[in-house]
Amino acid sequence: MNVSLRTKILARNLAASAAFLLTGCATPTTELAQLPSGAWALDAAHSSVTWQVRHMGLSLYTARFEAISASLNFDADDPTASQLTAIIEAASVSTGDPDFDDVLRESWLQADRHPQITFTSTRIEQTSDTRGIVTGMLSLNGRQMETSMQVEFYGGLYNFLEGRNALGFSGEMTIDRSDFNIGNLPTTIVGNEVYIHIEAEFLQQE
């Protein structure tokens, strides 16, 4: 192989690699026509579920769940026809205080009897190009109730680190802990409203 041909091949390979990297590092697009429909699964390593509750009216006590999973049937042509199912392992609650984690698992969430917290969408309303309301059934601590979540769509791109397409969302949900029989402390100590914040990345499934 002569030097000229070898140089051309090397240049072509470098150009292809650069284009691949630029595609992966591009700004996410919210143009639905550029995004594929189909099955997506939560990238738990780049997702989180945190929750906050008022503590004696003085602060928002913040904690999280460590074990989360979700599946999304994404419809780019009609986002309102998409379907979401999310699962949280109740025993994965984490406050930074192992002793209090045990109290929450055993007494508040009764994780031994109700090991999973689930949310299954029943309808989706699109309120703008990148925002919507996802309503579904929330099962928590042995009780089930219809709950709505405010969702923002961050967009999608090709995640070159994973070698797959990725989508990003955030979600906000507020529930009343008394509706799910969580805890027995008075509201002067622990507020009834629980503020849930979700950051979620999904990877396209083959």
Number of helices: 2
Order of H and E elements: HEEEEEEHEEEEE
**Percent of residues in helical segments?**
10-25%
Q: Which geometry do the CA atoms define?
A: elongated
Number of strands: 11
Regions with pLDDT < 50 over 5+ consecutive residues? Answer: 8-23
Kindly provide the radius of gyration, computed on alpha-carbon positions and rounded to a whole number of angstroms: 21 Å
Arrangement of strands in the largest sheet: 1-4-5-7-8-9-10-11
Strand content: over 45%
Average pLDDT over all residues: 90
Question: Span between N and C termini?
Answer: 39 Å
Q: Major sheet: size, sense and barrel closure? A: 8 strands, antiparallel, barrel
- In terms of structural class, how would the helical and strand content be classed? alpha+beta
